[in-house]
Amino acid sequence: MTDTAWLGTACPRPSETHRNAAEARQNTLTKPPGSLGALERIAIQLAALQETERPCADNVQIVLFAGDHGVTAQGISAFPSAVTVEMLRNFASGGAAISVLARKLDARLEVVDAGTLATSEVAGVVTDKPCHGTRDFATTPAMTPDETAFAFDTGRRAVARTVDRGAHLLIFGEMGIGNTTSAAAVAAALLGKAANDLVGAGTGLDSDGIRHKARVIDAALDLHGLKAPDVPAADVLMKVGGLEIAALAGAIVAAAQSRIPVLVDGFIVTAAALAATRLNPSCADWLIYSHRSSEQGHRLILEALDAEPLLDLKMRLGEGSGAAVALSVVRLACALHGEMATFAEAHVSESL
Ligand SMILES: Cc1cc2ncn([C@H]3O[C@H](COP(=O)(O)O)[C@@H](O)[C@H]3O)c2cc1C
Ligand SMILES: O=C(O)c1cccnc1
């Protein structure tokens, strides 16, 4: 039995001293105070987390967790499960969206098979899984307690591999046909909302398909007793989550415990972040929200997390792609914060 006690270890608090210093610096830069909007907020948050007056997001690691979902047997995705493993090869050979973004951003990309149906190792992919895909949660819990604990640890091990590389920021992505259904089920259970409020088109379901997806989730929440209030997040993940979603939740907690800020991607990673904040509320300080996905339920999860994402580009891909695109904005926020001249340095008159 894998121990999950580590998930509860408190994450460090952001430095108020550095937050105050960064805020003070923003107000001395040659611009009307507050005029850089969210860019100021992000630079100040990062300064507090990195315990510096000049935050930085140059050294970035992207970790993508992949897993397969038994619930695909219910016809809840527009694509077949085989795509998950096919995409593993595409990530490794550099042709996926996140592969291109990682190259252009000069960020390292590690792909972890956290539980796909692949029966042998895929070249260029780290294999760290307790089983091959989850069970169909329409009929039985998706995972056993041991598989869930293993998946949390998969996330922790991925973060441990990056700590020595000195990453300023982590981005987590995911790949798993069927995982918008699992993510919606997890979020519906944790938020006490109807499945209908959290489902969306995923890879491209039509409105009948979306209604069917909601019915599958709704029935599963009944079956597993997840409409009751205050079901522990680990139970929710075990019953209707996924191996890559539990790995994401474990990785988010582990990153915060290791003092590494996380740039949170779209619908699925945000559902995992919601679970992570239930597993360990102190990790919330370490999360920066990158974008609002056009997957319908994302808005509700973001609201529950009190999150204001940086971008809304109508993206709905996953893989960490929204966070990767927002990384450019974060980097520019850091550059402005660190490199703009102050009123005194530039001999510019301050406000009346
Ligand atoms: C070629 C392809 C590449 C992807 N990359 C991410 N996803 C995204 O779509 C999947 C979730 O949608 P659903 O729940 O509808 O299956 C996940 O793998 C997610 O990462 C992809 C989907 C496809 C088809
Ligand atoms: O926003 C996401 O993460 C997302 C949305 C649809 C499909 N896959 C991922």
TrEMBL record:
GO terms for biological process: cobalamin biosynthetic process. The active site is at E319 (proton acceptor). It is an enzyme of class 2 (transferase). Pfam families: DBI_PRT (PF02277). Keywords: Cobalamin biosynthesis, Glycosyltransferase, Transferase. Residues 1-32 are annotated as: Disordered. CDD domains: DMB-PRT_CobT. InterPro entries: Nict_dMeBzImd_PRibTrfase, Nict_dMeBzImd_PRibTrfase_bact, Nict_dMeBzImd_PRibTrfase_N, Nict_dMeBzImd_PRibTrfase_sf. PANTHER family: NICOTINATE-NUCLEOTIDE--DIMETHYLBENZIMIDAZOLE PHOSPHORIBOSYLTRANSFERASE. Belongs to the CobT family. Catalyzes the synthesis of alpha-ribazole-5'-phosphate from nicotinate mononucleotide (NAMN) and 5,6-dimethylbenzimidazole (DMB). This is Nicotinate-nucleotide--dimethylbenzimidazole phosphoribosyltransferase.
